[in-house]
Design brief:
It is a single chain. This protein is mainly α and 103 residues long. The chain is built from four helices and no strands. The chain starts with 9 loop residues before the first helix and ends with a helix.
Length: 103
Amino acid sequence: MVALTVTPPQDQLASANGRKNGRKPENPARAQGLKRAGVRLGVFVAFLVAWWAVTAAGLVKPLFLPSPGAVWNAFIQSNSCRPSPLVRTASCVVSRTTSCGSI
């Protein structure tokens, strides 16, 4: 007696294993998450470019819409450990009045 073995084509084997071309199947949730992250990053970059363009063109006074660089510098200055000139002046005035008052 002759035994016949039937093997299915490769594409049927791949679909039975859940793989295409020997690769793992793609996770649709991960792909959608990457797409959303890309869209968010693109919108943020477009916002910064538009903000920079409007301030560089001088369409709005810096009092009402400062440039992104000015906002960044103010953020760094307000969050740094060194005191601003106004704080230094105020502390000098306070120290002078207290030292003079104790004499």
